[in-house]
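thought: fold this chain, then report.
action: predict
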Amino acid sequence: MLELKNVNKKYTTKGGVVVNALDDVSMYFEDKGMVFVLGKSGSGKSTLLNVIGGLDRYDSGEIIIKDRSSTTFKGSDFDSYRNTFIGFIFQEYNILEEFSVKKNIGLALELQGKNADDVIINKILEAVDMQGLGDRKPNTLSGGQKQRVAIARALVKNPEIIMADEPTGALDSNTGKQVFDTLKKLSKEKLVVIVSHDRDFAEKYADRIIELADGKVISDVKKTAEIGKKINEDVSVISDSILAIKKGAKLEVKDLDAINKFLETHNEDVFITANKKINNDIKTVANIEGGDNFSFKNTKDNEFNKKVYKKDDFKLIRSKLPFKHSFKIGASSLKVKPVRLIFTILLASIAFAFFGLSDTIGQFSRVNTAVDVLQNESVTTAAITKITNHNYDGYSYEETGSITVSEVNALKLKFPDSNFKEISTNANFSIQFSNCIVDQNSFNMQNYYSYSTRGMVGFTNSEFENSDLKMLYGTYPSSANEIALSRFVASTFVDYGYIDPSGNEYEISNISEMVGKNIGDNEHIISGIVDTGIISSIYDSLKVESIERDYNLAGQFEGLKQYSYHNLLFVNSDFVISNAPDSLINYSEVNGLRINETNFERNVNYIKEYNQSDAGNIIFIDENKTSLTNNEVIIPLYIVMSYIDFTEFAGMESSFNYDSLEHGNISFDEYMYYIANNSYQLDLNQLGLFYTFVENNKTIIMSNINETIIKYYYYDFNNRYAQEISGEFNVVGFSKNLYSNCYSYCDFIVTQNNYDSFVGETSYGFVLGSLPSSKGELLDFIKESYKFTPEGNNTIRFGLINTQVTMLDEFYSMIKIMAKVFFYIGLGFAVFSALLMLNFISTSIAYKKREIGILRAIGARSNDVFGIFFNESFLIASINTFIAIIFSIVACYFLNDMMKTELNYNANFLFFGIRQIVLIFGISVFTAFIASLLPVKKIAAKKPIDAIKGR
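observation:
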């Protein structure tokens, strides 16, 4: 069955001495019988057992098992060979302390893929006198009981070869005899190879004795029977010198004659005894078994009954360690170095939590957060405008601009249920509260109300009825001279009082009292108050002046006022159409106007087309002129001051006094001196006087303006240059529409044709409509608002400019940076934790080295060893994942809460979910795998005997 051919094995001692453990050893083993291998310590007997059992590797030679050469073995074939054919019994028992007796035995079956049936295991336990002890743990057993467990484990899988290394070395003689008796019975059907130092036991039990010295076979003898001579059925002569009489025999005369003849041929005293002990001793000394005596003679090769095997006789069973055992062995390692384990798990959990947070932040969705905040704040109105994404030398930014009529119509088609309404932000038609409230000092100190209305919106009666708005008091404007105020705008007068155009002051106790009042001039009457919704009480704190001003809250509220119905004037639809097309021309537009003269340039802020109704507010240089032609322009009066040469008046002597100025009793020169010495500042109360001076001194003013030219310019934003592309404009007059903010928002007036060439299509500041009520539809709506489409060298989108959504856009880049920071922090922690885990796994492997060797000895493969420690790593990874998830959830909660508190933002920025859980688990398992791979691979590559011996 088993043959060794010229097998050699060397090893080097710690002192560097090379030892020949096996020196050109060749031998053959039959299918059954008990073979003892004897020799002194260091003779090579244990090495021989380990080599033929596959626990150790030979250096050269060949081992043949059932006609299959081991030189053809691949990978873990030696493991499978042990699992299939060999049952090992060790001197140190080598049973697993974590498992009960029953599970130790059943493990050998399970490695073969068989069911560890209680009936089979109990039968084996009974065979080794261990019945009823199956549930005991090894540490409660005696040495003899442990050895019997080892024998039972070897026998349970019914191996063809049993190998025992000093199986009685740790046992008393009586227990040792029981062990050998058991093995002797087994040798009747199996090959039993025993390494022993006890020659007496060998000569008593062995069928063959092989003796080694210095790695060489010095003796190989086989037990040979010498058949005794029977006198009759009851009396026989053994080995010519021992007379044996069967128990209970009755001797006849002829038997006595035979005995007398025996006595005559032996000149020695003869003892006849029935003492059992003496008889057994005689049998032992004389090698008597049955009626024959045995002696050991040199083993001859031709005496072996060599069997010829078929290919199917050699089928290896590849082991598969059950998960429950693999997991249990791996989990038991967690008890090793618990402080180090806790520290490793804690650090790893922090690292993986950073990864989870990094991905959570990286997956920050403006869409989801926008939906969240809009629903939490019960926002039902959508403000949308065109947002352009400018790209310049790899740098990009978004800019809000006006939205054209055709673009508004396209939005209405895309979202028909939103009922979008155009909002004109024409600054020339708004309420300037500084002119019409009583308590102006307090008003100038507050942060709640605005200094002017944002713009205007015009509804037809049917449109208003179908909108989400309703009238609180009065009626909706039906003519050009009627306007309606929002609840918010009307509340300004309740808090600060009202001044009519004639200067009369009123206390307003209820917003309904504003119905019928005039605003700004006598031409516009308040016809009603519109309910634009309740403004949240969280903004009430802005009404009170505070040193610790909440700028985030103020910013949110300013955005709310800017892009909602709250701060608009409601007018007749025809009125807004005729007054809406006033468009800002600035650096973000393609075409523009620029006043150009030597050492002076000024950009035009607004332009508007000439309307005959504007004639009353225009000072024409030519008094006979009543209209404009192409390439003529009316410029604002504040521009006039930019071209008057005040230097000749600065520092001059004058009899100027303020009273004279108020009553117009001063000369033009004296007035210019006043302006020159007061840094061109005009008191609004004196504008009428300034109009008069301009009217009376047009020629003087024009001579100061001199050769001022206003030209077309094409402004290329991407390349940042202005290029003149067509003719110039002639200044033919000055507009008198000066307001408190006229230095920023006064108009240049041109003909309709010129206006169209600059502005093109009529446009509006933004549109207002209804947001979808369902979460799904709202999600789609928000997604659409973030979709960019190409427009020239840039891209555009029609985005929500709700204050909460706008804040998201501002935080977006910051959050992306945070994601990177968290990622790199997590990466650093992960590398360090992986090193700690590698150290822990290495320690765990060192602690489990002997158990690994035992498993390999009974048939487990390297893959099973990998499984044990990957289960351990997986368990650690699972703990890491659980703790990291808790850390991440808590961190997300606190970060969300902090943002809500600090930014007054009623939505979650971070959404920790399934994706992050999977990511953390994946990274945790991957880290554990990498940390385990090298040390596990190293231990799995070890020879089983080295692992058992702790080498």
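thought: worth noting. The first strand starts at residue 2 and ends at 12.
final: tokens above.
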